[in-house]
């Protein structure tokens, strides 16, 4: 039986560590968008998020942000949102606010 799925709903997010970026791919493996990051000890800085023009308006960047921030939390990393998209995303999603706070010892 052939798999029938809406291509727009199938977004696979992967941490492409070799390229220091999270990537979103559709069901065919086509790159839909990405966010570049830089790892520092205990910190991940999100530098530049981009959704390719033909995939805009489908929630791709939000899916990448959610996956990357959930991973950062799981790894115990503090987040530095250097990218305007991440700054806006974090402002709109207070459930991730704890990721941008400095540890108590540094305040």
UniProtKB/TrEMBL annotation:
Residues 14-101 form the N-acetyltransferase domain. CDD domains: NAT_SF. PROSITE patterns: GNAT_YJDJ (PS51729). PANTHER family: BSR4717 PROTEIN (PTHR31435:SF10), PROTEIN NATD1 (PTHR31435). This is N-acetyltransferase domain-containing protein. It comes from Kribbella rubisoli.
């Amino acid at each position: 039986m052939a798999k029938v799925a809406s291509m727009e709903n199938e977004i696979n997010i992967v941490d492409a560590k070799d390229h220091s970026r999270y990537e979103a791919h559709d069901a065919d493996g086509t790159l839909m968008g990405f966010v570049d990051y830089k790892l520092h000890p205990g910190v991940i800085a999100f530098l530049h998020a981009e959704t390719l023009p033909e995939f805009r308006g489908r929630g791709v960047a939000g899916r990448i942000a959610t996956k990357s921030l959930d991973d950062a939390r799981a790894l115990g990393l503090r987040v530095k949102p250097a990218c305007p998209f991440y700054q806006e995303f974090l402002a709109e999603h207070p459930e991730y606010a704890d990721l941008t706070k400095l540890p108590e010892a540094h305040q």
